[in-house]
Amino acid sequence: MPPSLRARLQPLRDFVGTDAYWLAVGLLAFLTVVPGATSEGYFQTGKLFVLGAVTLLTAAYIGLNRARFQFSAPRPVLWLALGYVAWMTMTNTLLSSQPGTTFIGWPGWRGGLLTNAMYWLLLLLMLHRPKGDTERQPWALLLGFLALTSLWSTAEFLGLRPWLGNAWLGAVQGDFRVTAFPILSVGNSGWISGLWPLLTPLALVLAWGRRWAALLLTLALLLLGVASTQGNLAALVFSGMMVLMAGLTVRRSVPAALLLLACALLPAPVTSALVGLNAQLQSAGSVAGGQQQNQFTAEATGQTTSERLLIFTSGLRSAAERPLTGWGYETFHNNFYGHLTEQEREPMLRRIIKAEPDEQVDISGVAVVARRADGSGPPRETTLLMVKPHNYLIEELYSNGFTALLFLLPLLGLMARELLRARTELALFALLAWLGYGGYLMGWFLNPSVTPLALAILALGLRSADRAKGLMVDR
């Protein structure tokens, strides 16, 4: 390579593998969309392509320049992660119930072996930091990203659609049209709602530093994000995190602790205010699309909770049938209905097909069928594919068997221990961010919108812990 070109590329080479580099990868994955895509491509394909390309290129660069990097976690983390990837490879190929599906994933989801293995390999790459690097706090970048996504989500919830349907950006969206679903531009609103528990600990960092203006802005943005995506679990985790952080803050600043505690009560009122504003804009003809509904009601929350419990029940019963190897990723739709009793599944089936009082419901394969009790008229049929158990740990049990926990639980425990021992601001932030994101994953699953950023935050915390240990050795 000519010396002049080498000199020009040096800043880029110095950037690869830094904390800012991996945060940029997480943000890029979140914001990636595919022009002219179907819903599958819009939510998944582009993001997975970006992550795959980054993983391969960065792995090649680190491999060629391995003398410049060091691994920022205890060695057992590396071996457990590699062992876990090896085991999931076996359970989703040689031992899979449907190797063709489990390797790539169900069409429209693409959350099979390739995607899940890539997440863990990406984390291992993130843990390779340049030797001698210095710690830089990411708060300004994360706050700016929070502002962008929260205001974007709120605008779409209100019907303003700053991206989809915009006359200037219409070419970008292709044939994928606007619906009333919030934050459709960058992903399913249920998936995006995991962003708010992940970034909630920003408020703790700012509260401890008594940075009042930034704290108030962060809390407002978090509340708008939670309200506009209307994830019941995300709201619950957000409120729980606020109570926890208030307890951690009370000795440093009572006013800040009270402010955090008050925010735990605000997701529902903020949602009601946004729903009311959307109704006003609809009445004035200022926005198009269907009117938003408040999902933080007792009825909606109760229905969501009862259905989630049914999904968990079926997932655990299915896992118990193949306890060692599991069924493989994204095959749950083949087992979901069959592992529920008729009494357990009937209310859900009636809701799915919108059955009339005089209709009887049943299942035929993965389809829901409704027939009139007197036999008159043709049967009606619809399909709801429950591809995932909607709980990360149950999904791992279902997909990879109880054996997977022998790798996964010690791996998570080791990383949590490192973050706890470090006692650095960034390590504490990463620990609490994953506590929030982990709570969200108890009712959802990994996805390419938020998971890459979550992995980057975890890696930054472990890098900070590694630097702290290096400083103690130098002393």
TrEMBL record:
Name the UniProt key words of this record, in alphabetical order.
Answer: Membrane, Transmembrane, Transmembrane helix
Membrane spanning stretches? 20-38, 44-64, 76-95, 107-127, 139-160, 180-199, 211-227, 257-277, 397-414, 449-465
Membrane topology is: Multi-pass membrane protein
Recorded hits in Pfam families, A to Z, give: Wzy_C
Source domain of life:
Bacteria
Q: Where in the cell is it found?
A: Membrane
What InterPro entries does its record include? O-antigen_ligase-rel_domated, WaaL-like
Q: Which residues form the O-antigen ligase-related domain?
A: 218-345
What is the protein name given in its UniProt record?
O-antigen ligase-related domain-containing protein
Q: Which organism is it from?
A: Deinococcus piscis
